[in-house]
Amino acid sequence: MKTGKHPRQISARAPTLDDVARTAGLSSMTVSRALNTPQLVRPATVAKVMAAVTATGYIPNALAGGLASSRSRLIALVVPQINNPMFVDTIQALNDALAQRGYTLLLCVTGYSETAEADTVATILSRRPDGIVLTGIHHTQTLKRVIMQAAVPVVEIWDMTPTPLDMLVGFSHEKAGNCLGHFLAQKGYSRPALIWTDDRRGRQRKQGVIASFHQHGITISAESSVPLPASLQLGREALAALLDSGTSCDVIVCSSDTLAQGAIMEAQARQLSVPQQLAVSGFGDLAFAAWNQPAITTVHIDRAAIGHRAATLLADSIAGLTIAEPIIDIGFTMVERDSA
């Protein structure tokens, strides 16, 4: 008799722990111990169980195990963008360091919306992560309240404050901008123009740049604001607009190396020698900055260290270890190269 169903719909079912036990010739209890506490089971037995898992296609129920141990082994990372090269090294380092401690990273992208961040975190918490990493220190009151009620370890990254929600790994963007501005002023540049993205951390760096130039009696000649994410194209277009408007400048200060690379290309396309006729500086010390032609003067941020230190703080906190330094300032380094 025909049922109207595909045979696979009738017979297919997910393999169970008992299936693994039968295939391995072991008890279900032994299989469970081998999967959940392999360090307490003989290696030969663990190997036999894993071979049976492969043969049956069994997928352990991590949620059930997590409920039993009050641990999900999940760490949620909330970032504004994944197409921004500034965050890539941090994400990778965080993932690698957490994996070494037995955790899986859950990546969430929220844009630069604090409301979207709050909604995302509320959804994440329903999955019971063991910890959360947030980008930045500016959050809605709703998010702060939810975080406090959840009582999970939290690390904020890429910013600096003496009063984080829990733990923090970052640096002062305003100080980084101030350092860059002082460097350029001391090099003798007196007619700076800015190409900048209008995000909160970018604005903090810009305030530092402007303040440091003002301390040297220098005002900003012109400014071009570009949307996120920064790109080579936007850097070229922004410099073209500045030059076409008749702006007189001797240095272009960019909020990222990507914009700086675009500005350099536009200057070269217009037969302007960099830095002899027009200097250019960036921020971030991205992988290409040292190899660009000319190499880009920039501010180095150890992005991988942010991820690694954040992972260590979270894993240690979850393990119940004492956190000696809940606030870590990784600092920054001014890197002088050929472009300025």
Automatic annotation (TrEMBL):
In terms of CDD domains, this protein maps to: HTH_LacI, PBP1_GntR
**MF terms (GO), sorted A to Z:** DNA-binding transcription factor activity; transcription cis-regulatory region binding
Q: Which Gene3D superfamilies match?
A: 3.40.50.2300, lambda repressor-like DNA-binding domains
Q: Does the keyword ATP-binding apply?
A: no
Q: Which UniProt keywords apply?
A: DNA-binding, Transcription, Transcription regulation
Q: Which ranges carry the HTH lacI-type domain?
A: 15-69
InterPro entries from the xrefs? Answer: HTH_LacI (IPR000843), Lambda_DNA-bd_dom_sf (IPR010982), Peripla_BP/Lac1_sug-bd_dom (IPR001761), Peripla_BP_I (IPR028082)
List, alphabetically, the PROSITE patterns matched.
HTH_LACI_2
Could you identify this protein by its name? LacI family DNA-binding transcriptional regulator
